[in-house]
Amino acid sequence: MLISIISLVSGFILLIWSADAFTNNGAKIANIFKISPLIIGILIFGFGTSAPEMLVSGLAAFEGHPELSVGNAFGSNILNIALVLGVTAMIIPIKIELKVIKKEWFYLMFATLVAGLLLWDRHLGVMDGSILLVLLAAFLLYTYSESKKEHHEFDNLSSSVDGNHKGKIWTILLISFIVLLVSAKLIVFGGTSLAVQFGVSDLIIGLTVVALGTSLPELAVSITSAVKKQHEMVVGNIIGSNLFNTVGVLAIPGLISPLVVPEKLITRDYPFMIVLTTLIFLFVASRKFSKESAISRLEGILFILILCFYLYLLFWN
Q: How many CB atoms lie within 10 A of CB 271?
């Protein structure tokens, strides 16, 4: 019990430092290479903060716990929107225009719908995993082509970031990324150990404790990005992370340890994921004719209320 608690606390401490360093240096790289902050949010932060989910899902599948892997993917997507965007918007309204995220959001929704169709027969196998990986490859190609287009620099960063310091910036980014992984692993280990002592199932552990632990990098990165007014990176981080979870993390158990998908995952968890993904679009689109585009504090509270209702269904229904 004591070791689990120490693991959780030390994981949180490391997470706070690494998320701040990761955000700062990722933003500097975007500035040096004139890359859109949305692309950085999707590709570097989205993939980087989804690495814990990939690592945990891979280990769980290899160790014969594929339900934990699937639960991790779904739970992380739900928490990324309901918790991460909700808490971030409650702290600082997220200013973002629909035209900035429209293409990426449509791809996320498309991938989510395809994943739902693949899981409809309640079987996740090698063919399903392969289709999801093809979608991941297509998204990476799209993101790469977008990164080649001319984009504006960060408004809040100096345009005189010294390109000669690129080596140091990349080194710090790599170190902070590794610490992010380690901190997430510590949190997952501590949280899972505590949950197992209470006899919780693999699916519930994956949907809650493991999903929360692996979503903490997204939460830390999003809050620090919002505080620094890098709003495109906040939304890019969530969209990118959820895409990697849907087509990358979800593919892992299918390729490694095919499984029968629990019915609750289709009837309870998947609808929540669809609704929350839709709300991102609706909240941003509703500001189309207003002076200021933002996901407001009130909408952030709504995300949290939806999360509370979801957790109620998990544990008390």
A: 12
57: alpha, beta or left? (left if phi > 0; alpha if psi -120 to 50): alpha
In sequence order, which residues have a C-beta less than 8 Å from that of residue 237 and are 6 or more positions away?
41, 42, 45, 46, 49, 218, 221, 222, 225
Is CATH 2.60.40.1520 what the domain over 2-151+162-316 is classified as, yes or no? Answer: no
Distance between CA atoms of residues 86 and 136, nearest Å: 26
Query: pLDDT tens digit string along 181-235?
Result: 787 778 777 777 777 777 777 788 888 877 887 787 778 878 888 888 878 778 8
For 51, the 3-state DSSP assignment is helix
Q: Is the separation of the CB atoms in 133 and 247 below 8 Å?
A: yes
pLDDT in tens, 9-52: 888 788 778 877 776 777 677 777 766 666 666 666 666 667 66
